[in-house]
Amino acid sequence: MLPTNNNLKILSAYNPYLCDCSFIVFEACINRLEKQNRSSVKHVFHDLNQMKCYFPPTNKGIAIRDLNFHRYCVILEDCPPSCICYLQERNTLRVNCSSRRLLEMPVIIPKLTNVYTILYLDHNPLGYLGYHSYLSRLSEIYLDHCLLTTVTLSALAALKNIRVMTLHDNLLQKLPTSTSNITLEKATNITLHNNRWACSCESLWLPRWISKHSAIIWKPENISCDYLQIAMRDVSKSNCDEKRHLNHDYLAVFLVACAFLAMTHVYFLYRQDVPILMESKT
């Protein structure tokens, strides 16, 4: 959308801009303003020449207006509703569905071969991550802040080519037990923190799995049990053994207390009958 307020002035320099194909919309806005009136661009965007890229490293320090996004970015039409799909430099497919208020995952995404595919689904109230055939083509998937409570085993198994996966800041309490058999050979960065992990002695495989993949999991020490308020990686078999022994001690004390209370109850219930019984025997 082009600015229509003649008094509008925008100062946007000195931000860590990620100069990817999403800037093609901004570029179109600038080009249209220049066609209308070249001076109107400087009137609205006062520091346009100082707006420079920070990411990716290949574009760091380059002025945004010097990059011709339309030359190496191709907008794809076969894109999920509400999403934006573009092919960048002919080798990276970006499917941007971030913050679109989606209630479920896209049914399909553009199918391209021999490209690095990134799917942005963060900040959508999805709640559920299920299997889709395109998951096997993904190199990166962003699922943080999605109110996820369930991640299916079939979905995890399909992510065989995944390198980056963000699952932090969700409502996850557990992962399928068979996740321990899945090997994420290509993964370099996985996030799991800020969830509601329900640590128990029945799910000891998860702390072990996290320890095994600590090289690719972002700050594993920040993954904590929701109720115990301890780091998940600190939950071990010894903790469970101590807990079992402690539970056995509590059980023994409880049984003794119950027996004592029962005997006391019987005594007070029949205390008036005891002298009569004693006299009858004599």
UniProtKB/TrEMBL annotation:
<feature type="domain" description="LRRNT">
    <location>
        <begin position="78"/>
        <end position="115"/>
    </location>
</feature>
<dbReference type="InterPro" id="IPR032675">
    <property type="entry name" value="LRR_dom_sf"/>
</dbReference>
<dbReference type="InterPro" id="IPR050541">
    <property type="entry name" value="LRR_TM_domain-containing"/>
</dbReference>
<keyword id="KW-0472">Membrane</keyword>
<keyword id="KW-0732">Signal</keyword>
<keyword id="KW-0433">Leucine-rich repeat</keyword>
<keyword id="KW-0677">Repeat</keyword>
<dbReference type="InterPro" id="IPR000372">
    <property type="entry name" value="LRRNT"/>
</dbReference>
<keyword id="KW-0812">Transmembrane</keyword>
<keyword id="KW-1133">Transmembrane helix</keyword>
<feature type="transmembrane region" description="Helical">
    <location>
        <begin position="250"/>
        <end position="270"/>
    </location>
</feature>
<protein>
    <recommendedName>
        <fullName>LRRNT domain-containing protein</fullName>
    </recommendedName>
</protein>
<dbReference type="GO" id="GO:0005886">
    <property type="term" value="C:plasma membrane"/>
</dbReference>
